[in-house]
Amino acid sequence: MKETTSVAGGPPTRNSAGLGKALEKGLDFLMNIIETAGAFLLAVMTLIILWQIIARFRIIHVISPWTEEVAMILLVWFGLTGAAIGIRKHLHIGVEFVATLFPARIQKILMIIVNCLLALFSLFLLVKGAELAWALKDTDTPATLVSRGLVIYSAAPVAAFLMLLYSLELIIKQVIEIVGGKRP
């Protein structure tokens, strides 16, 4: 049974004639790992910030200089990997008002163009993010003494790779839907 995508920005649904079951299951598994890691990062970040508040107001008389830095690192990873999930689930910001002015077939073509632009941006972020991470690999953070490039800035190319992967998935599904002869 084949399902179609919704027009004007709706997330594509599973299409058995699309990418292939194994590849799609692999991408689903990868997204589940990212979502689980994101939930873990958010929980740890919340606990660290709570600890920072308690320590800052001298409730327990402990100085914790590392808390702000670690919370910032977790926030960077959480935010950037969350952007990749947003692309996969088609939750990125879009101007649907303009797309709805066109017929359904043109809307689908516009969605392909939008996803191509997302893929190009992701490729740019992958290349430039990797360059930045590599350039700063020998620079350490002041409190935790971890590599800025390898721990913080490497989040950009990792997330960009995931965004590129998910953008390409959406493009392929949308092209298959249009070329496959489905009519709205």
Question: What can you tell me about this protein's structure?
Answer:
The protein has helices at 21-56, 67-88, 96-99, 104-135, 148-153, 155-179. With 184 residues, the chain is mainly alpha-helical. The protein has one domain (21-179). α1 packs antiparallel against α2 (67-88), α2 (67-88) runs parallel beside α6 (155-179) and α4 runs antiparallel to α6. Residues 1-9 have low confidence and may be disordered.
Q: What would you call the structural class?
A: mainly alpha
The rounded distance between the terminal residues' Cα atoms is 17 Å
What gross morphology would you assign? elongated
Instruction: Give the strand content.
Output: under 5%
- Give helix and strand order, one letter per element, not per position: HHHHHH
How many strands appear in the DSSP assignment? 0
Number of helical runs? 6
Topology at a glance:
Elements: H1 21-56, H2 67-88, H3 96-99, H4 104-135, H5 148-153, H6 155-179
Short descriptors:
single chain; 184 residues; mainly alpha; 0% strand; elongated
Give the gist of this structure.
With 184 residues, this protein is mainly α. The protein is 68% helix and 0% strand.
